[in-house]
From TrEMBL, chain A:
<dbReference type="GO" id="GO:0006508">
    <property type="term" value="P:proteolysis"/>
</dbReference>
<protein>
    <recommendedName>
        <fullName>Carboxypeptidase A1</fullName>
        <ecNumber>3.4.17.1</ecNumber>
    </recommendedName>
</protein>
<dbReference type="GO" id="GO:0008270">
    <property type="term" value="F:zinc ion binding"/>
</dbReference>
<keyword id="KW-0121">Carboxypeptidase</keyword>
<dbReference type="InterPro" id="IPR057246">
    <property type="entry name" value="CARBOXYPEPT_ZN_1"/>
</dbReference>
<keyword id="KW-0964">Secreted</keyword>
<keyword id="KW-0645">Protease</keyword>
<keyword id="KW-0862">Zinc</keyword>
<comment type="similarity">
    <text>Belongs to the peptidase M14 family.</text>
</comment>
TrEMBL record, chain B:
<dbReference type="GO" id="GO:0005615">
    <property type="term" value="C:extracellular space"/>
</dbReference>
<feature type="domain" description="Cystatin LXN-type">
    <location>
        <begin position="73"/>
        <end position="176"/>
    </location>
</feature>
<dbReference type="InterPro" id="IPR049897">
    <property type="entry name" value="CYSTATIN_LXN"/>
</dbReference>
<keyword id="KW-0646">Protease inhibitor</keyword>
<keyword id="KW-0677">Repeat</keyword>
<feature type="region of interest" description="Disordered">
    <location>
        <begin position="173"/>
        <end position="197"/>
    </location>
</feature>
<dbReference type="InterPro" id="IPR009684">
    <property type="entry name" value="Latexin"/>
</dbReference>
<feature type="domain" description="Cystatin LXN-type">
    <location>
        <begin position="1"/>
        <end position="53"/>
    </location>
</feature>
<dbReference type="GO" id="GO:0008191">
    <property type="term" value="F:metalloendopeptidase inhibitor activity"/>
</dbReference>
Length: 373, 197
């Protein structure tokens, strides 16, 4: 039976503590009951406690985790930790995940995109990016969670596994690595890239004003010292140009989702003009469904609509360009919260935010799959 | 309203900043006159929180501050990871209240603010009953996305209106010099403003 006495018999009237291996449970219970010996269960599952302690130890020691199962999804990470996570994910799932380098940032950091694919050649694809504005930390953290979630769904043949049968998913987690590194080392509130263009007094271009859609129009700034500086010309930023090149050469992206924080909004084009997008009705209805799915988890309230009517006029923005390229399902998310913590969202909200957002993303991805164009 | 300006009718609910509990509803009208002067506001709110409970919380915090042996100093509330030390929560709450007066002054029909972070706080010990704090707060400005740094001096006695003096740098924080070039910030800081509310 292999009973392990944690508190051995000491005498009549004194309790005894026993760890019972799972396979002996029934026999031991039956024996005690048959002999009128009363017992109570102090720990239902010792292994669960051991597992928890293990992850806790890895968490508190500032070592890097050894695999994506012990990685701490409930904490904010540095760029090195995230890049290491990506490598681990690929190593653990070589038949599903590959890491692509689509370019280099101004400070020569690699721009990595994870490709999730079950095969085929140039399948219709979904693109998701997080962290284009570096101070929006919940987005990169959510991107890491999404990556793991895709792998898990595939392993368990649930969730997005069915989408992966016919489509590929591309995920760029640290879309602005220079900015992200800067938020860790120097200025937690840094938003832009870290480029310095000739003639510009200040550093950095807003990567969400640098796209070739209404570039330079009202809704961006020509002053390099501002947070919405559009840059000297469209795609001046390698972080933007690399995505533009990727999208054009891939040629088969059907949904493009760019993720920001904060404000709790789901937005579709346009930001640079009041002219409604030709597909506005469909995008509006799809947004309603996506938001309903998101709210169903924790009750988080989102508003939705076109960029210009819901948040403000913005020119040169990502999804205006992708939409004009023919990617109908182009959306921007603004994740939690609505201003109380803003960019400094407590880490314990990372996973709930990622979980609820994922439900909305699935609605969009499924719609794209079921409405191929 | 032709010839007059823009009038907004608002209905909104409020919640306790700390707990998220429902704190009542408000009905308001805001008129932005055609000539850019301060908006005209009328507002009526229902309060669901017990006034006595509020007073008790204020008083217990007040007593805690008064019995400090050293002046409170702190920085980065919340920190980069969104953490606020429980002992510093009331200091943060005072900053929220005080910076709302700054935001009130600075907001326009097209410019709004959120409190992004308390960069630093330092308590000044006074001989009278008031508690006094010097804050540097960072305001997130919309839609410009700028982070505005403001200095705020706040004086408080439970039961009295909060006294706030503020002084915000008018240039955005992005004015960092690149290599070989100088920062272009030539504008002086805005004049010190006082408010009592």
């Amino acid at each position: 039976i292999q009973l392990d006495f944690w508190l051995a018999p000491r005498g009549l009237g004194l309790p005894v503590d026993i760890r019972v291996p799972f396979r002996s449970l029934q026999a031991v219970k039956a024996h005690l009951e048959a002999n009128g010996v009363s017992y109570s269960i102090m720990i239902e599952d010792v292994q669960a406690l051991l597992d928890e302690e293990q992850t806790e130890m890895l968490r508190s020691s500032r070592q890097r985790s050894l695999d994506t199962n012990t990685f701490n999804y409930e904490a904010y990470h540095t760029i090195d930790e995230i890049y290491n996570f990506m490598d681990m994910l690929v190593a653990e799932n070589p038949n599903l995940v590959t890491k692509l380098e689509i370019g280099r940032s101004t400070e020569n950091r690699p721009l990595y995109v994870l490709k999730f694919s079950t095969g085929g050649t140039n399948r219709p694809a979904i693109w998701i990016d997080t962290g284009i504005h570096s101070r929006e930390w919940v987005t990169q953290a959510s991107g890491v969670w999404f990556a793991k979630k895709i792998v898990q769904d595939h392993a368990n043949n649930e969730g997005v596994a069915s989408i992966l049968e016919t489509m590929d998913i591309f995920l760029e987690i640290v879309t602005n690595p220079d900015g992200f590194a800067y938020t860790h080392s120097k200025n937690r509130m840094w938003r832009k890239t870290r480029s310095k263009h000739p003639g510009a007094i200040c550093v950095g271009v807003d990567p969400n004003r640098n796209w070739d859609a209404g570039f330079g129009d009202a809704g961006a700034s020509g002053n390099s010292c501002t947070e919405t500086y559009h840059g000297p010309y469209p795609n001046s930023e390698p972080e933007v140009k690399s995505i533009v090149d990727f999208v054009k050469s891939h040629g088969n992206i059907k949904a493009f989702i760019s993720i920001h924080s904060y404000s709790q909004l789901l937005l579709y084009p346009y930001g640079y003009t009041e002219t409604p997008a030709p597909d506005e009705q469909e995008l509006h209805e799809l947004s309603a469904k996506a938001v309903a799915a998101l709210s169903s988890l924790y009750g988080t309230k989102y508003k939705y609509g076109s960029i210009i009517t819901t948040i403000y006029r913005a020119s040169g923005s990502t999804v205006d360009w992708t939409y004009n390229q023919g990617i109908k399902y182009s959306f921007t998310f603004e994740l939690r919260d609505t201003g109380r913590y803003g960019f400094l969202l407590p880490a314990k909200q990372i996973v709930p935010t990622a979980e609820e957002t994922w439900l909305a993303l699935k609605v969009i991805m499924e719609h794209a799959r079921d409405n191929m164009y | 309203i032709p010839e007059s300006g823009h009038k907004y009718y608002l209905q909104f609910s409020t919640e306790d900043y700390r707990t998220g509990e429902d704190a009542g509803n408000c009905l308001a009208t805001v008129l932005y006159p055609k000539k850019k002067s301060r908006p005209v506001v009328s507002i009526k709110c229902s309060h669901t929180k017990d006034q006595k409970e509020i007073q008790e919380e204020d008083n217990s915090f007040y007593q805690r501050i008064r019995h400090q042996s050293k002046p409170i100093t702190a920085s980065n509330i919340p920190d980069s990871y969104g953490n606020i030390e429980p002992a510093l929560e009331p200091v943060w709450a005072l900053a929220v209240a005080g910076s709302s007066s700054i935001m009130w002054e600075k907001s326009t029909e097209t410019l709004g603010y959120f409190l992004a972070q308390v960069k630093s706080v330092r308590q000044w010990i006074r001989r009278d009953d008031f508690v006094e704090f010097d804050y540097t707060v960072l305001l997130h400005e919309m839609p410009t996305q700028e982070i505005i740094s403001c200095h705020m001096r706040l004086t408080w006695l439970p039961g009295q209106p909060l006294k706030v003096k503020h002084f915000c740098a008018s240039e955005g924080h992005g004015a960092e010099p690149g290599s070989g070039a100088e920062s272009g910030s030539a504008a002086g800081p805005s004049a010190e403003k006082g408010a009592s509310f």
